[in-house]
Write a structure and sequence with these properties.
- By secondary structure, the protein is α+β, with helices and mostly antiparallel strands.
- The protein has one helix at 4-28, and strands at residues 35-42, 45-47, 50-53, 58-65, 70-74, 79-83, 88-94, 99-105, 117-122.
- It has a five-stranded mixed sheet, with no helix packed on it. Strands 2-1-4-7 form a four-stranded mixed sheet, with no helix packed on it.
- The longest helix is centred in the first third of the chain and has 25 residues, at 4-28.
- The mean pLDDT is 87.
Length: 123
């Protein structure tokens, strides 16, 4: 029979071995979005034109194109994603500090491409 001291030591060794594995596993998991917002891009419009979220929230934008290829760009957040027709592009990010951030189409889609903008409002 092992003394209680040896049992405690073995338990501690096992915990010290498993703890880093558990921490690595938890760190590798994707953040779950607190807010999911559908965004539709079509020639010269982004719908909804204003996306409102709260600072610190994990946000998932499910972006689709109703016609041709577009790109959803939020330059201040480093977001630049192509959006193909017939597919959904999910863009997940943590909402930054309060403020307004420009959303634009990042793929030239016609003569009024520069007017295809929206706004991310972080409250």
């Amino acid at each position: 029979m092992l003394p209680a001291r040896h049992i405690i030591m073995k338990r501690n060794v096992i915990l010290l071995f498993l703890l880093p594995i558990l921490l690595i596993h938890l760190g590798c998991q994707k953040k779950r979005a607190a807010v999911r917002i559908q965004v539709v891009m079509k020639r010269y419009t982004i719908d909804p034109p204003v996306v409102r979220v709260k600072s610190g929230e994990v946000v998932a934008l499910d972006v689709t194109s109703a016609d041709v290829q577009h790109g959803l760009d939020i330059p201040e957040l480093g977001i630049k994603q192509p959006v193909q027709p017939g597919a959904t592009t999910t863009i997940t990010f943590t909402a930054p500090a309060k403020g307004e951030y420009r959303i634009a189409c990042g793929v030239i889609c016609g003569p009024h491409h520069e007017e295809m903008t929206g706004k991310l409002v972080v409250e």
